[in-house]
């Protein structure tokens, strides 16, 4: 009597990698609105290097940033309204409110002293877990809420909201959102947090640099100068005014990401699984 042939155990669901769950699914309108806001934002931040010295925009160097600030307010509102139409259900709204309130509460802890701003690491981890669309909305709302708490409302706020939206959205676009875990993911997030924190400070310098008068002639914006000359002035401005703060912010983000990242990532992923964002909310009738 011959023994029965061995059978192969069927593959179970545990061996397959579950797809990534996004709190906000970006549709064509949301992507178009984000692209428009990004394009206008690039112009709003980089116009000193994009406009020729003889243009009327350079002639009104003190007025242009204010005009762009008003335009960015409208664009951020358009993006927020568009994202709200992209399956931003009550669960995602609740998650957005909790994380935005937490980030806004973290900002006054360091008050920007020596670049200690713990809210940045939370936005990196949140954007990583919840996706780029949620990350953009979270970054913008968090910066707006924190400005209300700290009294930082001014013409610079739209620039901060857009920059922070880019900051958190970039974390959601990093590679390996499903397969990459453990130390490799922490290194990726820490590296992104370091570079993005420096980039945030550099971009925000562009919002205030054209306001400098002729008193600091070596580093101030000169409307009639060439692009190369103004770029050299801007680099000198960053080195003289904000590099120390930006490095402090970048190092603080790296330290908090490495120290608290594993616990926060687990908590965010557990909350995302339990929230089941992609499951529609239904209400059973009486007696069901």
From TrEMBL:
InterPro entries: ECF_substrate-spec_UCP037395
Record keywords, A-Z: Membrane, Transmembrane, Transmembrane helix
N-terminal signal peptide: none
Residues that span the membrane, as ranges: 31-52, 64-83, 119-144, 156-174, 186-207, 247-265
UniProt protein name: Energy-coupling factor transport system substrate-specific component
Source organism (scientific name): Streptomyces murinus
